[in-house]
Amino acid sequence: MAKRRKQEEEIIEPIEEVAFHEQFKEDFVEYGLYAIGSRAVPDVRDGLKPVQRRIIYGADKLGARAGGSYMKSARITGDVMGKYHPHGDSSIYEAAVNMAQWWKGTLTLVDGDGNWGNQQGQDAAAQRYTEMRLSKFGQLFVRDLAPGVVPFVPNYSNDLTEPTVLPVPFPYLLIAGSSGILTVGISANIPPHNAREVMSAVLAYIKNPRISDAKLLELIPGPDFPTAGTILNKDEGQAFYLTGKGKFLLRGETERDKKMVVITEVPFTETGKIKAFQVSVDDLIFSKRILAATGAKNYSNKAGVRIEVGLKRESTPETLEAELYAKTRLQGNYFGNFTALRNGMPHVFTLREYLSDYISFQYELLENRSTVSIAKLRADLEIQTGLRTALDDINIIIELIQNTKKEANVLKCLTTGAVPDGAFKTKAAAKVASKFRFSEAQAAYILDTRLRRLNSLDRVAMERKIASMEKEIARLEKILSDPAAAKKELIKLQTEVAKIFEAPEFERKTRLTNDGPITYVEEKKVVSYEVSVDKFGYLRMMAPGAAAVANEVTRFATDTEQKVGFFASDGAYHTVRVDKLKQSKPTDKGDTLASLGGLSGTTWPLVNSTMQVGGDQTLVFVTARGLIKSTAAAEYLSSRTRLAGPALKDGDELVSALDLDKAKYLVLVTSAGRAKRLAVSDIPAMSRKAAGNQSGRMLDGEAVVAAFLGDAKSEFELGGKKHKFSDLPVDKPSTAFKKI
Predict the structure, then answer these.
(1) SS3 71
(2) 278 has a pLDDT exceeding 90
(3) Residues 163, 463: Cα–Cα separation, whole Å
(4) Distance between CA 679 and CA 624 in Å, rounded?
(5) In the beta sheet, which residues pair with residue 337?
(6) What is the β-pairing status of strands 345-348 and 339-342?
(7) 113 and 49 in contact (C-beta within 8 Å)?
(8) Mapped to the 3 state alphabet, what secondary structure does 497-548 carry?
(9) Confidence class for position 20, pLDDT limits 50, 70, 90
(10) Residue 544 in contact with residue 259, Cβ under 8 Å?
């Protein structure tokens, strides 16, 4: 019987307890920084995100170069995904589409054939239907690409290498702009700029790194969008170049006609979605938010933007134009954020910092190219000098090759002078061969060259070539050793690049002004009315001078620019705009205050408190429990339709809110048929939310039911009978109510 194997003891590692929110925060930030570096934010050196860099590199490796044949987009996308960018073919193709659409940036890096979408918002056709190749600008990114010029690293599967940056010879990031997704609170939103202006600033900075900010802003006064438009805050927007963050106010362009206003340009923020923009304008017209238009029709095509907005007969083109700018996205903000990767970490750049980093990168490329070129030239020079030496004894070398069977013996003779047996017919030839001391590279090249070619070498041409290479090596070595020579060379190279942008297509398109936004103030017709409220709480808005209303409690003049306010039994103050009320006749029923204020069944409006909002009067408040106070009406000015009033205790309610006006006395009447007269000077002035002070001693269950303001000759009603104020003595709040 087999012996049972002893069960291995389970080893449990120590468990570390951590706070979930702390661990989550740490992991999320780490992931976000990885996403920024690997996908979202461009590198300050070449201005590219990884997917863009890999598309350019992959297309070049496949042979889809500028001026050559187009290649199926699916093939390039699949190759890039399989070799360099394992994040899905749709994201790669989407990036290629963005690189091919001229309205997304100043320079297109991909030259597409087929349906690549349009400004209207139509998407590009599927990658199996389109073809692509690098554009002339995309090709410049790989013109000087070689190991040693830029770093190469293993790809994700470790079977190929790819460049970490491309040796672009112009400041692509600033010219074309870029935008990156928001990741862990970091985003990039860099507007495109005019290539001529940028190159002028680059050359000026190379010549004088201490150039002032003011001079740089003269050279680069603001963004230049491929869709033109106008920047309305040129001076304010220049904060973007000094701080790395700023706001640009953009505006499209319109043309006026007798029967319409034509939109001919939309802001850069709306490019690529012109159809959606036209639909939004039509929706505003349909919902009567744009009042001067009849409708919007879109006739945009490859020739440009054209959205025709019809004009109402009673309106003017100027009015409609102002409405379009103020109420649609024809005028809007572009928030710039100059964020890019520096040494793999996100950094917010100023214009000066960007130019410094770009030029430092160009110096680095110049140094690396010079070093690589010197190495290649020296290797070629070694071969050429070897051939020049071989010319002196070319017949002996040919005899050596013809008479020696083993190649190794020929190489040995050429490099060390060891003459093989039987290689030469004369001792003189053997003696010459014994003095051969070619390098291994020279000897190998001589052997690889056809005898006919060796025999036809031209010494004069060779001497010229050697002199040219020696001169070039000396020039490159001076660039490496002399900063002044390097600066001169870089100015020369950048000047050559600047000539590319002298074509008419690179003239500035976006206009720069300090005009500010166009505003629109809607003209309102002010109509005068009279507001009448009866004792049942019905409100009527009538024409001035209308007949009296039965059971009318109050009436006052107002207009459609004003508000009407009233208090409810719970102490809250309610307001309603006059222009929201419907006009009625004295015989009409009108609207109830309860419905206008949205009051519940347990709360009712105080009819005698109805007044026009905005007066400078003082209000006297009385509650059922006999609390009194005065408060300035100004404390109730608010944009809210309901505002809290006195803070009443449970079981108490507001009985009256009266305009103090010029009254001298306040008379209170209770449910027990008692009354009391107080001097106005004894009413305490308090804030809006204060409940008030006691007006007098009351019986259990007794409540104030009415309040009256007036002078000694005024009258009040008690028990169905009218009494004069003078029938009551003037008491202090500390005294009790009295029976009449």
Answers:
(1) strand
(2) yes
(3) 38
(4) 19
(5) 189, 245
(6) antiparallel
(7) no
(8) HHHHCCCHHHCCCCEECCCCCCCCCCCCCCCEEEEEEECCCEEEEECCCCCC
(9) low
(10) no
Taking the alpha carbons of 34, 39, 40, 43 in that order, is the dihedral positive or negative? positive
At residue 155, the 3 state secondary structure works out as coil
Q: Does pLDDT of 129 surpass 50?
A: yes
CA distances from 565 to 171, 556, 591, 639, 685 (A): 64, 12, 14, 12, 21
Report the alpha-carbon angle 310-311-315, nearest 5: 165
Residue of 460, 448, 377, 375 lying closest to 414 (CA atoms): 448
CB 257 within 8 A of CB 317: yes
Residue pair 716/705 in contact by the 8 Å Cβ criterion: no
CA distances from 641 to 531, 563, 574, 598, 638 (A): 18, 10, 6, 10, 8
Measured CA to CA, the distance from residue 486 to residue 482 in angstroms comes to 6
**DSSP codes joined into one string, 433-463:** HTT----HHHHHHHHHS-HHHHHT--HHHHH
| Secondary structure (3-state) at 730 | strand
Q: How far apart are CA 141 and CA 163, in angstroms?
A: 11
Lowest-pLDDT range of 13-27, 80-94, 400-414, 687-701: 13-27
Label residue 27 by pLDDT band (50, 70, 90). low
**Phi, psi angles (nearest 5°) of residue 229:** 80, -175
Residue 79, phi then psi, degrees to nearest 5:
-65, -45
Amino acid 321 reads E
Q: Are strands 573-577 and 230-231 parallel, antiparallel or unpaired?
A: unpaired
Using DSSP, state whether 418 is helix, strand or coil: coil
Q: State residue 595 phi and psi, 5-degree precision.
A: -75, -35
**Dihedral, CA of residue 644, residue 648, residue 652 and residue 658, to nearest 10:** -60
What is the C-alpha to C-alpha distance for residues 645 and 652, in angstroms, rounded to an integer?
13
C-alpha 126/C-alpha 117 separation (Å) is: 10
Chain centroid to Cα 326, Å, comes to 20
Pairing of strands 230-231, 253-256: unpaired
Q: Describe the crossing of helices 89-100 and 50-62 by its angle, rounded to 10 degrees.
A: 90
Nearest to 78 by CA among 87, 68, 69, 67: 87
- Is 256 within 8 Å of 309 (Cβ atoms)? no
Residues in the chain: 740
Alpha carbon distance 113, 62 (integer Å): 17
Q: Which of 74, 75, 73, 86 is nearest to 162 (CA)?
A: 86
Show which residues are catalytic.
129
| 3-state SS string for 578-602 | HHHCCECCCCCCCEEHHHHHCCCCC
Mean local confidence (pLDDT), 277-295: 92
What is the reported pLDDT for 185? 56
Angle at 210 between CA 205 and CA 213, to 5 degrees: 80
C-alpha dihedral sign at 424, 428, 431, 437: negative
346 half-sphere exposure, CB direction, 13 A CA radius: 26
Angle between helices 351-392 and 483-500 in degrees, nearest 10 = 110
